[in-house]
Q: What sequence folds into this?
């Protein structure tokens, strides 16, 4: 199995924590977010992992070098540096060769979780959709991607940060996609612009209503997007 971890952001809402540390290396009870993901992916038999970098990229490279040296892992971990941030989907389109001709898990690097990605992956393979989005329930869905499902878990509505909340089902920051998506949505109009500012929530998912499924994640999961959520994670998380 393959995974891409989106880890290039500045983490502006986490300042001053991210003044000298990239968001993906923020430690939760001593272990960086990225380290938690590496451990989980290794335990769940992922073979290839790609991380996009931008802000404090050298710090990320050094951490990965140390991790692979000091841990028993068979994973091939590589990074790809972005001179300018491409957007959540722009990174995926730019790295189509890594995705290859199959399926790939995509993870927001600022998510802390003990999720069993194999369950989501099996759901995705069984249903044969272009995309399978992991979701959690949250009655306070402000500033989130919100979805509505039919009785067969097909996504029939998706809106990023809606003005009026229409569901308690929100995107978790974890998805699985199939490479056929690149043919469905080629985005040739922005290819010459290096896929800049191509975002899943605004540009991809709303175009694929009826071709995506959603899977409820029953696990610990928190988005480390703010100082308050970081403090909450420090209280609740146990390595």
A:
């Amino acid at each position: 199995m393959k995974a891409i971890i989106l880890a290039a952001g500045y983490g502006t809402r986490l300042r001053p924590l991210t003044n000298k540390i990239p968001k993906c290396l923020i430690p939760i009870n001593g272990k960086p977010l990225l380290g938690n993901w590496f451990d989980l992916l290794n335990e769940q038999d992922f073979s290839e992992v790609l991380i996009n970098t931008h802000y404090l990229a050298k710090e990320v490279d050094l951490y990965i070098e140390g991790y692979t040296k000091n841990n028993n892992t068979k994973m091939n971990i590589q990074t790809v540096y972005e001179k300018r941030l491409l957007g959540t989907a722009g990174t995926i389109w730019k790295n189509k060769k890594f995705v290859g001709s199959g399926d790939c898990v995509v993870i927001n690097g600022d998510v802390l979780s003990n999720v069993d990605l194999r369950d989501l992956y099996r759901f995705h393979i069984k249903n044969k959709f272009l995309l399978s989005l992991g979701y959690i329930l949250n009655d306070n869905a402000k500033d989130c991607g919100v979805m509505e499902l039919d009785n067969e878990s097909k996504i029939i509505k998706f809106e990023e940060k809606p003005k009026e909340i229409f569901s308690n089902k929100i995107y978790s920051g974890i998805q699985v996609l199939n490479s056929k998506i690149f043919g469905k949505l080629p985005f040739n109009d922005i290819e010459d612009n290096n896929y800049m500012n191509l975002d899943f929530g605004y540009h991809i998912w709303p175009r694929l209503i009826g071709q995506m499924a959603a899977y409820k994640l029953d696990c610990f999961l928190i988005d480390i997007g703010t100082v308050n959520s970081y403090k909450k994670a420090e209280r609740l998380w146990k390595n």
In short: The first helix runs from residue 33 to 43. The CA atoms of residues 52 and 73 lie 20 Å apart. The first strand starts at residue 2 and ends at 6. The chain has one domain: 2-236.
